[in-house]
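Please, structure for the following, as tokens.
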Amino acid sequence: MQKVCKNGILCIIILSLATGGISQKHYTRTRKLELREDVRRMFQHAYDGYLKHAGNYDELRPLTCDGHDTWGSYSLTLIDALDTLATMGNFTEFRRVHALLIEKMHFNKDINVSVFETNIRIVGGLLSAHLLSRRAGVELEPGWPCNGPLLRMAEDVARRLLPAFDTNTGMPYGTVNLRYGVPNGETSITCTAGVGTFLVEFGTLSRLTGNSIYEEVALQAIYALWERRSSIGLFGNHIDVQSGRWTAFDSGIGAGVDSLFEYLVKGAILLNRPELLELFAEARTPIDKYMRKDDWYVWVGMNKGHVTLPVFQSLESFWPGILSIVGDTEPAMRTMTRYISVWKKYGFLPEFFNIPAGEASPNREVYPLRPELIESAMYLYRATKNEYLLELGEHMLETIEFSAKTKCGYATIRNVVTHEKENRMESFFLAETTKYLYLLFDEDNFLHNEGEDRHGELLDTEENVCVVQAGAYIFNTEAHPMDMSALHCCHNMKEDIFTMLDLPSFSAKAIFERSSQQRVTAQEKWKPQCQPNKGSSNHDISSMDRNSDRDRDRETPSTTMAVDIEVFDEYQQPAADVLVGNFERIREERELNRSLLDSKVPRNQLTVSDLDEFYQQSRENFANAEDTLSYVLNFMSNFTMDVAFIRGLQLYDVNISRVLGTGAQKEYEGRMRSLWQLFELEQQFAINVRLIERLGLHNNQADSDVMRRYLADILHSLESLNHPYNTDNETINPYTDRDGDVGQNQSDVTTIQKAIFEALLDYEFAMLNTTAMQEFVHRVYIMGTTETQTQLQLKPLLSAAELDTLEMVELEPLEQRELFKYTRRIVEFRKRMSETVERLQTIMQDLNTAKATESEVLPLPMPMPELTANEPGLSPDKTASATQQQQQQLQSQQQHQQLQDQEQHQEGSVWSQFVQNILRKTTVHRVKFDEAALLEKTRKSLEKHAHKHLTYELFSCRRPGYIEAFAYRDYYPEAI
């Protein structure tokens, strides 16, 4: 707490939440609008940073101000944030991005993607943007909302996800290739949320396009999960989608399970399916019975309900919002108060919070700017108008702004205790966190419309009349809003259900005849239970009763109980997992101890105050240049940074990895080092990269004798560093007797030695360059704090003239060899590869020569001369027949020759066989997928889930009582 509250500002923010559940402030309309504009500025800062530095990547890295791909290399943040632009009224930018997506975005890519993430982020984002395009002023196609480019794009993506649902159970795989379907060897184990989180997006897509397959496969996946609940009604968190066997038996409402319950409620409302709401009510009963402990929700075993993991996960924060939607606001508010207490403790929510210990779980202290807590605050405020939730939103806004902001975005909090930052900004920060914060303070936003006629717009098409933009808007789990009113504009237009019905069978006469026939059949089958059949004994009757009971048991559906074949310890934990965890813990402790022992300096953690003191020094404080250098060297040698701090600052230049390989970065970030050690290692990397570029080794040069000789010269020159460098270039040339090519070889050796000598001088000067050392410390300061470049002016302690007066220390021969070990490693690798290729080519030439000799010994038969009609003794018919036979024989010989050529190439070229073997193993083969067969199988599976006729609908006048307590009651205007 002392570290967090060091500057005093954050303490005021956190401690003002001391009184739980009761707001200490009154929020006027003006104040709420001010906070709303603060959120808009937060979004705009992060959005501009993404466009400027990472527009072609999935996500922004806010510490290094660059981008990286995470979920599929399709500009994920751009799609995810599109409807947030409309939410905040930035329609100009919305139209620009809308046009950009239509022009450049496509998904016919050979990449493996997460089915779950692609659905909620891409399909959901495109559908939401499509439904909001009319409000944003986009020029619409005729037939909107049933037509549109983003709708077609969303269906294209969803169609590419459909092969994942073609399993024995109907539950989808976790990964799919956008071009080829399910990858070969893909695991069939998927988390529960990855199975049950499709109904909102796929249901919306089916209602807009008229293609029912999307909604039906999403329903079948939910029902397949429902069938496999444990005997006490709980779900596990991972399941095998082919066998239907649970593979992870912990049950909770957090990670891996959460959005299943969310989509039962939202799918019921969005698609007017009250049976799903009944499933949620039934699923909630064992949740409250086994998981709810003093308004916390813990993790329990799915079979017995015993507590297995007494933690609160930040992903569980969505639960109060779901409870508020179904009108149960009192328990929602009590649980919300528990979650807010964790926020008060740290200023953020850790991924795992140990409830009995009252602290963040080790190695789970990260907060990736998740939205779930503010999402529940938004829902609860809409339902209760409790200004305590506005106060929470204000504090969340201030803490994120204070601790997570960087010069180009907002960073993940690596540790909620120290508020150390991590170099990632997930797309949901712009899609969800900022959107829910904005909606909390913007009470008049159109997304709060409750389906009233005054908010809607009458849409009169050629084939249908409906209301759009009336709401209510249902958010998917990525906060993409779906306009419920627009869903009723399309399904009658695209799919006429009456064409599938046998209308004559519904006439009064046909119905009467069927009823009479059913009555007669029932009477014929009826027999009094008190009169046994003739010739039957009591034994036969009892046997028949047992058989009927057994048949009745077979017909009655029952929940399945997961069979646990794992070995458990005394704490009901899988013994294998415990064993592996112990080995991992021992290995990590051993590596940590080894790094501490290897460190030549004692631990003296660098702080901001130390850096401030360093930058207060000036040249006037020192007598001469040597004293100045001595102070800088002592400062950098005195203070250390541990592994987590080094990795968090992202000081390592990733461009070096392209030259020296990933091993260099592992070495740089592998153990605790002092500032001086880090600077020294960084200079070694830079010198080696510079030398490799000077020698031309960074380009892919052709393999040849000249190249191999050049590489050998480099290795010899590096080995000769054991001896002092001869400035007169009087070196012994080891190749003076090679084919008389002494002059050219001598020139290469001289060039190589000159490049090595210059690199050596550069390094020795860098060890005295106090300005370079200041710049390095300056980077540490900028990366580790919220300071910007303009706020901290770098003033060199020594001028260039004074640096030249310092005496350089020459490296010993062994130190020189150690300095250039990275270059030596690259050269040796290139030389071995070149020699390997040369040997393969030699083998290939020998085999080709042998094949050519065989072909000379056994020549192919020569084709016979053509027969013409002028030759004597042949009739025209025989001549034509003979000509046709010759042509067939010639074609056969040509095919034989081609086959021999192919066999010669395949058998003779070792290199080609090597390449073909790699291609066979790495090429993704298209998986056969029949959409019609999947639809037929899904409908057959759904037949057994046909629900009893309910006496109400969610949007009719006859509703159950608990529906009236919804936070949003009027979902859709009355039919026109």
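The mean pLDDT is 78. The first strand starts at residue 59 and ends at 61.
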